[in-house]
Design a protein that fits this description.
374 residues; alpha/beta; Rossmann fold; 2 domains; seven-stranded parallel β-sheet; six-stranded parallel β-sheet; 16 helices; 48% helix; EC 5.1.3.14; isomerase; UDP_GlcNAc_Epimerase_2_dom
């Protein structure tokens, strides 16, 4: 049986970008804008991993990004990690065989990126990993499996921090490493002023600046475990009582489903569960909250850039720079620790500097032009 691999002569001058999740769309937006600035038309392939309007399409509309050239269909019918990854891999491979890009960028650690990386590698296309070198060293996390695998099969590794570079060198990766900074810095700085003027989310929710907490929880190791989910929800209830402060909780579909299946509900009316919101609304919520509690890696970065104290509801982080500079506290699901760190955060001023650089999208665009002659 003949297995197709693309030759160098078959590859075109197209550069592909694979997205599929809210964080991925946001992180790629500065690169897409920098490409367009240089008259490079990006080939955007959407895997459909986040397939609801609130977690997906609204971000393209708000960020004024080109509509994806291709989308993997029927993702909503997949459920298991292997099934989801395989479905995306097949869909991405079909697009790559049709378009034959010279290189494709995947960004981060979601199943979207693993599927894309495998399809790209198997066809002999140049694989570029944005956000390379992050490590939580927690092997329970599917994201940790994904990021390690992608790093080891990439041709170009775009590392956001010097620690990420060191992780890649320690792991002995074979690809070419570049220290570029973090595109989330560009995304936040490009959009925070727009968010402040356009979003009316504070008025809609009837909350005041610096007078509420923001909370997001969605990680599998948290919400798929009833004991941990219950502990986190109990801590949130206690926060609302002790500090007599509204807690805004945009609820991820996965979390919503688990709360219902576990029979868990919030009793305190200060806790406001709301549907997922668009990027500008979320950026305004984040930039104006007193403290954010989250298990999201991307929100740890965004809060750090915006000067908002972050309480991470995990036992570890792949963003250690946020902890080192004092922007982030790792608390797990221990209620006493959560209460202690929130109280501390409410009574201090942010004094750290953005560790992620600037003009990162343009830096990456220059690297792509140099490495692949586009």
């Amino acid at each position: 049986m003949y297995l197709k691999v693309l030759t160098k002569d078959e590859l075109t001058d197209k550069i592909g970008i694979i997205v599929g999740t809210r964080p991925g769309i946001i992180k790629f937006s500065p690169i897409i804008r920098a490409f367009i600035e240089k008259k490079i038309e990006p080939l955007i392939i959407h895997t459909g991993q986040h397939y609801s309007y609130g977690l997906d399409r609204i971000f393209f509309e708000e960020l004024d990004l080109p509509v994806p050239s291709h989308r993997v269909p029927e993702m909503e019918k997949t459920f298991y990690h292997g099934e989801q990854t395989a479905h995306m891999l097949v869909g991405i491979e079909r697009v790559l065989l049709k378009e034959k890009p010279r290189a494709v960028i995947v960004g981060g650690d979601a199943n979207t990126n693993l599927a894309g990386a495998l399809a790209i590698r198997k066809l002999g296309i140049n694989l570029v990993h944005l956000e390379a070198g992050l490590r939580s060293n927690d092997w329970r996390m599917p994201e940790e499996h994904n990021r390690v695998i992608i790093d080891h099969i990439s041709d170009i590794l775009l590392a956001p921090t010097s620690e990420a570079v060191n992780n890649l060198k320690t792991d002995g990766v074979k690809g070419k490493i570049f220290l570029v900074g973090n595109t989330i810095s560009d995304a936040v700085n490009q959009n925070k002023i727009i968010a402040e003027s356009k979003s009316k989310i504070l008025e809609t929710l009837n909350i005041n600046k610096k007078k509420y907490l923001l909370c997001t929880i969605h990680r599998e190791e948290n919400v798929d475990n009833k004991m941990i989910t219950s502990a986190l929800c109990n801590a949130i209830e206690e926060l609302a009582v002790r500090f007599d402060i509204p807690i805004i909780f945009p609820i991820h579909p996965r979390t919503d489903n688990r709360l219902k299946s576990f029979g868990i509900s919030f009793k305190n009316e200060r806790i406001k569960l709301i549907p997922p919101v668009g990027y500008f609304d979320f950026l305004k919520l984040l930039s104006n909250c007193s403290v954010v509690l989250t298990d999201s890696g991307g929100i740890q970065e965004e809060a750090c850039i915006l000067g908002i104290p972050c309480i991470t509801l995990r036992d570890n982080t792949e963003r250690p720079e946020t902890v080192t500079i004092g922007a982030n506290k790792i608390v797990g699901h221990d209620k006493a620790r959560i209460l202690q760190e929130v109280e501390y955060a409410l009574n201090r001023k942010a004094s750290w500097k953005n560790p992620y650089g600037s003009e990162v999208g343009r830096t990456i665009t220059r690297i792509m032009q140099t490495e692949f002659g586009i």
